[in-house]
Amino acid sequence: MGFKQYIYLIFCILCFPLVGQIYEFTPPVRFGGSINSSADESNPVISRDGTTLYVVRTFEQKNMGGIYDQDIWYSRQKSGEWTFPIALQALNNKLNNAVVGQFNDPSDSTQERLYLISAYVTERDFEKGINIATRKRTDTTWSVKGKLPIPGLDIDGKYVGYYMSQDQNVVIISYEGSDSEGEEDLYVSMLDGTEWSSPEHMGSVINSDGFEISPFLCPSNDTLFFSSNGFKGEGDADIFYSVKKNRWNNWSKPINLGKKINSPKFDAYFSKRGSKVLWASNRDGKDCDVYTSWTISPPKLEIETQVINVSTFQGYDGSAEIIIKGGVPPFKYNWSNGATVKDLTNLRKGSYTIVVVDAVGQKKNAQIDIKEPELSETKTIHFPAVQFEFNRWSFINDSNVNSFDSLKFVAKLLQDYPNIIIELISHTDSRGETEMNQALSENRARACYRYLTEELGIDPRRIIPVGKGETEPAIWWNKSKQARFTLSEDYINQYKSDDLIYEQLHQVNRRTEGKILRLDFDANTFPEAPKEYLQYITIPK
After folding, report:
1. Residue 265 half-sphere exposure, CB side, CA atoms within 13 Å?
2. Is 14 part of any domain?
3. Is-contact 54 42, C-beta < 8 A?
């Protein structure tokens, strides 16, 4: 009979502030004083002020229900030593009893609260749930106030355990439900106003075909510790941790706490206060005892950034790479533009901030500034979409593309930089005859020229319209392949069976862009613009 079979209704633990390392510990030692006895001790819970330790004893002749009963025992710290444990008779009965957590009463600051596993009406009315006991800080007697109302707590098996979050708004429950992966699984119930939600399964990543018990959640509610026999470990049951991603049913792959904590036998009920950790283990024999260790400070989280600036004026090809040094994985990334990935690509000029958080809550932020090249001759200007109908030079202006707004952007650019002269370049796709595409591109460039000068009032001497036909296909970023490709006819033809992307890529080639030619425009000295720029050329038959 494995040790787990002796633990009935006591999979519970109190959350204390989590500071420091979670995988590197000092060698384990048995808890000092008289806490450990010839009976089984498990489920260590330290009060918030650090002066009282609650444990559960099994196979103790003095338990109210006999040796197979489980009662609450407690010890107080006086002058640096722990007193001889005493049974908490006011809250023990002939059922199985355990402390889930000790907190301040949120409704009355003069009272403290204990969350308990047991039943205090009659044994006949026993149900598997959490009871609440309170007392004045000046009193010694606890008063049971009733049961925590968690609806739909459908417990199929005989084992159940609870964790109450530090803010008393989240309960993690370990039990065998109708949708469990194996034996006991982890479920969550949350307080919404005055109502608790029905338990929700926490997902198949942290729940295995074995059992998951004794949950412990750090105060930030995003790092979960638990014991399991369903993942690769050191022995009968090991303690693991996992980090919440974005939902209560979405967690990172569990990580074993290692040989300093876990043994070839049963290890569970991890608790932590400051840098001191406690847990229960039968590593030294058949009896379960409380062990303690100290965390070693985690590697300090540091981040560095590598930036690739935009290569062209008004371009979108900047990137930012984050280099992680130290910290405890896994890491979370939160960018100011909403991205949650480690590195960013296809960035335009601007400032971007990132916040990196590691598994123990260490946080680092950085600002990344993407810059453009200095304004100079020959620099390319990437315009917003200026698109044309197929084989025409009339603008597309609909709910998807507003070419007029794009040209207003070009006008604003010229107004902001009154000394530049640009070459306005139009391109076509590769379909059609080369000579016709060349003429078509020139007319598209002249259409932009006419709108900018006649409708938006830009000095015609500052724009030179040029058509490049099909000679300079665009460079396209393929997100799925994380690479850039030239949109040649051969490349686009591989998508011919997919009409949508095939047409989209041809449309990318039918683009308009600019190039800075000069930085010395002077309205008083520059000659008149050629009149033919306002005239469309004849398209070859």
Report:
1. 14
2. yes
3. no
In a domain, 541, yes or no: no
Could you give the CA distance from residue 132 to residue 148 in angstroms, rounded to a whole number? 7
Q: Report how many domains make up the chain.
A: 3
Residue in 289, 286, 273 with CA at minimum distance from that of residue 32: 289
Residue pair 114/93 in contact by the 8 Å Cβ criterion: no
Structure tokens given for 190 = 């949350």
Which pLDDT tens digit goes with each residue over 398-420? Answer: 877 788 888 898 898 899 889 99
CA 450 to chain centre: 51
Same domain, 197 and 243: yes
What span, in angstroms and rounded, lies between the C-alpha atoms of 111 and 97? 22
The Cα–Cα gap between 209 and 231 comes to 9
d(CA 134, CA 144): 6
User: Is 226's pLDDT higher than 90?
Assistant: yes
Integer Cα distance of 280 and 74 in angstroms: 15
DSSP state of 383: P
pLDDT tens, residue by residue, 265-290: 999 999 887 778 899 999 987 789 99
1 or 497, which is more confident: 497
**23: closest CA among 209, 241, 289, 283?**
241
First to last CA, the chain: 93
Whether 126 contacts 140, CB under 8 Å = no
Question: What is the C-alpha to C-alpha distance for residues 60 and 21, in angstroms, rounded to an integer?
Answer: 35
**What band does 156 get if pLDDT is binned at 50, 70 and 90?**
low
Tokens standing for residue 58:
């099994």
| CATH code at position 199 | 2.115.10
Would residue 34 be called left, alpha or beta, if left means φ above 0 and alpha means ψ between -120 and 50 degrees?
Answer: alpha
CATH for 311: 2.60.40.1080
User: Which backbone phi and psi does 58 adopt, to 5 degrees?
Assistant: -125, 150
Residue 157 has pLDDT above 50, yes or no: yes
* Run of H or E including 192: strand 185-192
- Helices within 347-498 (DSSP H only): 403-416, 434-450, 489-493
Beta strands in 193-309 (DSSP E): 195-196, 200-201, 212-217, 223-228, 238-247, 250-251, 255-256, 267-273, 276-281, 289-294, 302-308
Q: Identify the domain containing residue 128 by its residue range.
A: 3-294
Supply φ then ψ for residue 274, to 5 degrees. 65, -130
Which amino acid would we find at residue 3?
F
Question: CA–CA separation, 334 vs 360, rounded Å?
Answer: 16
* Residue 249, domain member (yes or no): yes
